[in-house]
Every structure is written in C-alpha cells, then in structure tokens.
Amino acid sequence: MLQRKLIRHWLVRYEEMHWGPEKAPDVLRRTDDWLPADLPCDIHMPLLKAGLIKEPLEGMNSFDCEWMERKSWWFKNEFTLDGALMKHEAVELSLASLDAEADIFLNGRHLGHHRSAFHPFTKNVKELLTEGSNVLLVRVTSGLEHFSENDVAFLRNNIIDCDRYGRGDERRTFARKPQYAFGWDWGPRVPTCGIMGDATLTGFHRLAVRGVRAWTKKAGTRAEVAFEVELEGLRAWSTTEAAVTLQVMDGERVVLAFEREVSVRSGINFLDFEGIVDEAKLWWPNGMGTPHLYKIRVAVETDQDRIEYPRFRFGIRTIRIDEDKINERERWFAIEINGVRTFCKGANWIPADSIYARVSEEKYTALVREAKEANFNMLRIWGGGLYEPDVFYEKCDEMGIMLWHDFMFGCGLFPDHLAWFRREAEMEMEHQTRRLRNHPSLALWCGDNEDHWAMAIWSEDGKKPPFFAGGYCYNELAPRIVRRNCPDIPYWNGSPYGGEHPNGTDAGDRHHWREGMMNPDMEIRITPEEYDRTDAKFISEYGYVGPCRKSSIEAYHGEVPPDRAGEIWQYHTNFYEKQTVNAGIAKHYADAEHLTIDEYLLYAGLCQGLMYGYSLEALRFKEHCSGGLFWMFNDCWGEVGWSIVDYYLKRKISYYFVKRAFAPVKLILRQNGDRVKVVGINETPETIRFGAEAGYVPFDGKPGHTESVQFEMPPFSRSTLFAFSKDGHEERLGVYAVRPIGSSVAVQPAILRSDAYRNLRTGEAKLTVSAIELQGDEAHFTVSTDTFAHAVHFDLDDHVRLSDEYFDLLPGEKRKVTVYGVDSAFGDRKIVARCLSNSSSR
C-alpha cells in the first residue's frame, strides 16, 4: 500500500452559481484570479488571506460576505505522479469532506456528484491517472441552491430558526452539512463551503484493510477483549494468501498478540479475534480514575505487499444506559461505565468556529483540556454541528471525557421521505459509526436534537405535519446501523426523549428550557433556586447567558469601542437574551442601568456563574438525577451568550463556578423545611473520611452556631451525610456552611445562602495574599480573609488560567491558588485580591 496526500498547492476561484459542472473545461482554461489554498479549506480562508474580505466574525462584517453563498467555487490541484503509485492494481481517490454540493473531475473526466459534508467521496481512479502531470478539479457550493420554496412547503413552520439578522433558513434541513452555518441564536449566518478535509490517493495490491473494530466484552483485572478485522479482496476471480498480525500494546510492551494465515476471498472478509488482557488497566472518565489507553497494531502481509493499518488507541471499558425502574412511574437514565453508575458532568459542544475548517489542533487540545480542568466527564456533541476531526476524539480519549454524540439532525423536520436523502443519511451514519467506534470516549449515539420533542409540541399546538419527517432516520435507520457497526455503544433515539412525553421528567433525558431561561416569567429565569424544583432524571440542555471578558469583547468589536447600546454589541448578543442579563444583575447585585462596562461585566459574569453553579449542584444533589449538561461549553464566535469558554479561549467568570460545582469530591447543602440537608459525593475509587464543622456562620467572623461531625464517603457514592437545624438565625447576616477539617483529600467548604447577595449584609472583608512560590511553569499563592468574602478575584489578565477564582471565603478561611503557564518573571509581581464586599460599587 502506498499513499499520496494532496494537501498543498491548491488554487481556488469563484464563478456565478449558474456555472455548473458543464463549465469545467472553461474554468480550467482560466488563468487569472486564482487564489492559493491548502487543505482543509473553507472559501473564506483564502479570501481573508488575500485581503479580499474582512474577518466575518468581527463587527458587522458577516453581512459583507453574504455574496459568497451565491457563487460556485472551484478548487484545482495540479500534481505529478511517478511510477511507484501507478504500479498498484487499484488507486483510490478520497476527499474526506466536501461542504456541501460538489462535482469532482480528474484529468477532464467527471468522476461524480457528491452532496454531503459528512461522508467522504471515494473512487478507484487508476485508469484515469497518468504517470506525470494530472489535474484534479472540484466544484463546490454552500448547498441550498437546488431547493425551492415548494420543496420546503410541507415543512414550513416546522423548522426552528432564529429570524434575526438573517439567521436561519428553512431549506437547511435538505443540505447534509453543519446546520448551524446558516445562523442560530448563538451564531451568525456564515454559510460554510469548501474542501474541509484531506485529499488522498492510495494504492493497493490485491487487498485492502477496510476496518478494524475493537471492543470490551468484560471489564476487570482479567479483561475480555475482542477484535474484528475487515479485509477486501480486490481480485474478483481469485483468492490471495495473507498473514495477519494483531497486537495490543501497553506502551512498548505487547500484552496480547494474534497471528493468522488466511486465504482472502474476493470481496469482503471478516476475521475475529478474542483474548484476555491480564492485570488490565481500565479506561475511566475524568475524576473516576485514569483513562488508560492501549495501542492496537494490525498488519497484513502478502507476497507483494505489507499493509500497516493506521495504529489507534483503545480503552478497556464497558458502557451501558441504566434504565432500571425506580418505581412504577419512573425509570433511571444513567450511564453505567465498568459497572459503576455515573453522574454525567459537562456541557454541550458546538463547532469551535463559524468557519470550522480553520480550527487548529491546538485549539481542539486547549478546549478539551479546559473541559477536563473544569471537572467535566462528558461533552454532548450537538446535532446541528459536525462530526469533528480525529484530533478532537483522541483528546477526549486521553483526558477521560465521555461523548454523548448526536447524529447531525437538529431542530427541525428532515426530508427522509426522499430516496436520495435516505441514501445520504445511511452513508453518513455508516461512515461515522465505523470511523468513531473504537474511541473509548464515545459513550452514546443519539438520533437527533429536539426533533422528537418538536413533533410533540407541534402536535399539541395544532401544527402537526403530515408525517414525522426524520423519524425513519432516528427510529429505524440509526438503531440498525449502530447495532451493526458498534453494538457495544448504546443508542438513544433523540434528545430529549423518554417516557410518555419526550421532554418529561419520569424517564430519559430532558431539555430544561421552559422552566428556566426560556420561561416568560423573568423572575423564574433569574432565580437559581428554581432548579431545586426539577425531578428530571438527566438534564442534557439548559442555560443562562453571560458576557465574555473585556478583551474578547474588544476583539470582536474590531476598531469600534464597545458600547452596550451599539449595533455591534446587539448583533453579538444571543437572540434569547431578552434583557435577562440586566434583570439578573438587578436581582442579585445592583441596578444595571448606570453601571460602567467593567462593573457590568463583573456582575453579569457572576450572575451567569451563580445560575450555573447553583443549578448544577441542585442536579447533583438529587438522588435520581444522573446528569447535568448545560448549554453550552464553547462558542463559534464572540458574543454575550451561553458559553463558559469564549471563542478566544478565555475563561468567562462562570467557568470557575462550574468547576467548583463539578468537583469529584463535593459537599452540597439544601434547605429541607426547617433543616439543612448535607449530601456528600465521592466519585473517586477511594474511601474519604474527614471531620467538619456544620451550622450557621455569621459574616463578621464572630462565633456562630456549629457542631462537630465526622463524615465517611465510600467510593463512587452519593448519599445524605447529615442534617442540622436552621434554628431561626438572621439569614441576612450569615450563611449555613459545612467547613471540612483534616481531610487528606481537598474538600471545599459548602455554603448555602438564604437570600440574593444584594440583600446580604456581608460587611467589608480584609483580604491578604501571600508571596508567590514558583514551581516550574506554575505559581502558587494563598489568599486569606478575616470576615466573609464574596467573589474573591485577582488583578490578572483575562487570559490567565487559575485553579480557582470568583470564590467565597468563610471568616478566617484561606485558600491556595495556582496560576498555570507562567514564566520566571511572574514571581516578582504582587497580586492584589478583591471581593465584592469591599468593592466601591457596594
């Protein structure tokens, strides 16, 4: 086998949309106006580099790029082949991702039409290649030009869009490409178009390795593992003798090996292997243990060739959905990994850029690392985005981040009554399930986002369409393909889904919008205690909006100074914000109208953090809730929106609230009548024992009303540890708290306030910061207080990553803080700590 990548030295140009495939010879004759490009390439990228357009994600610039979706775009690559590749019996051309409608030509011959960004174009082109010069030409468009108002008439009013600033397009569900590209509540209309992955030529002699599947039959110290190797004999009339080897490696040590001599028949062949890995190291989600990875090597030798299948990493783990009955009315919905029921902690993932082809490996790595450091163990890959490149899944494997993975159908009805659409959906699902099935991070395949729920809503509102367009894909096609290609990975029909109503609380997962941020009652939107009311078994969406850091806001404003009343600010504000940020500030901190921009950003960030932190604790507190995934983790551009890590990779204030709420070892307090209930969570494999002081703590540091208690938390446990009486204390002058003492594991104090911070009489705290200690690229210091201090933060740049910030300190408490990625000069600076109680704005 020999492979040649065609990534460099492409040229791109545009013509009018009516220049169809028949114009290929005319395009090839053109010598002017070609722009250089490398793959992957979205059409915006070479135009940006050439200075022909401005950055679409800054200011109002996206409107100046609207013309681009009305053009046809032509990519050309002239390459030379020597005799080595031409000696192979078959040479396959593969274009990994064409977004979205494409026609492919090689040396003047039309190879075919392709209409999906979600599976590759592949064809044997041996007879069309020449030794020497060759020309590959690809025509591609953004994908909507073939669909008319008549096509979407039967779906009208049954496709969710945000008709603001031109966002949304009812035709989008006909195009097999990332749906968000046409605009969403959290992103602009910047229709993607281009060659979004690699182009390769691969030569084969006699046979090809088409796939390797690895899975765990039984986890444990003696783990049972199995493998399936798929070979294709390329000679239609004869067999081929081959020797197959498969090795499981832990580092450089072979822990399991197979060798087999086979006669490969024409067409598809399957080889099965099973074995025992002694003293197996299991793959565990973040916080529960080590996500250990083995390497898999597969090689096939014939008398003419040696084929090395791309090496991949494999985690020994089992996974299932626990839907056991709780009672006659309710069922669990919990991910069970390696036999342990797990609370899924995390958020929804969207594409990391509106122009997704330009997301770098470094950005993927940074984002997954930020999820890990926020104590996530799951990301939900939302169904309006894309199947991400390999590096994303590899980083999730490494860092113990489980993936709830939607198929790419979101917020609308999809025309699966059309034969061509069904074929596209089947090829997409077939390719992606085979491509991703060996990743231990892949925890669940899900049919769609909100489409079952939409059918239920539209039926209730009298807008029921003539049939469930998309239902065939989610309820028939996807479960069959998942069962065939990766039966060890659970399948779930949709999100939300489960029970009599697809968005109910008795079973399955729930999108908690109507009782939260989407409620017409503003007071409900901005009151965190509302989340104590839910009885959902697993919440996979809900959210609250908040702004970015100031430097990010300045970045997306470009040369225009930020102005909260300005056009750019409004354009870069989420569609559903609807004055919620100001109302939240007014409830919890101060009247918002006359705040400076710095005060506004501080209070708004704290409100988002309060809503996320309290709500996630509320879900973890509930005995029968097994997941809290908020909307959303990251951004595709800069805006006042749902995320906790912004487009520029800066942590929003809310990031630290989420990190604390998701701590693997956690105490949570909630009122229960006239008592305060203490729930302890231990997600680690070790028993944790410690003493604590529990009760009422005054803000001013004077003696409170507390008692000494001893706690023991078994491994992988969540249970009620203790309850104490409220005893009629003045709740505006103090908080209820549990302060751990003497734990060998860092367990942070748990605090429960009884009123909005605006109404609490916290007084003025005196904060003290120790000298900085440098250890490699980390800096450590300790902050302490005399009295209660709310939202302790530091005078550091927006891009600085800390172990904790914007936290509360009880009187007399101290906390060690680590700053990551510093240089030696950082040790010379003096860090200033601030908190809200001693802010000039109070």
Automatic annotation (TrEMBL):
Q: Which organism is it from?
A: Cohnella nanjingensis
* GO BP, sorted A to Z: carbohydrate metabolic process; glycoprotein catabolic process
What's this protein's name?
Answer: beta-mannosidase
Beta-mannosidase-like galactose-binding domain location: 32-196
Q: Which reaction does it catalyse?
A: Hydrolysis of terminal, non-reducing beta-D-mannose residues in beta-D-mannosides
The Beta-mannosidase Ig-fold domain, residue ranges: 770-821
Broadest EC class assigned to this enzyme: hydrolase
Listed InterPro entries: Beta-gal/glucu_dom_sf, Beta-mannosidase-like_N2, Beta-mannosidase_GH2, Beta-mannosidase_Ig, Galactose-bd-like_sf, GH, Ig-like_fold, Ig-like_GH2
The record ties this protein, via PANTHER family, to: BETA-MANNOSIDASE
Can you tell which superkingdom this protein's organism belongs to?
Bacteria
Its lineage opens with:
Bacteria, Bacillati, Bacillota, Bacilli, Bacillales
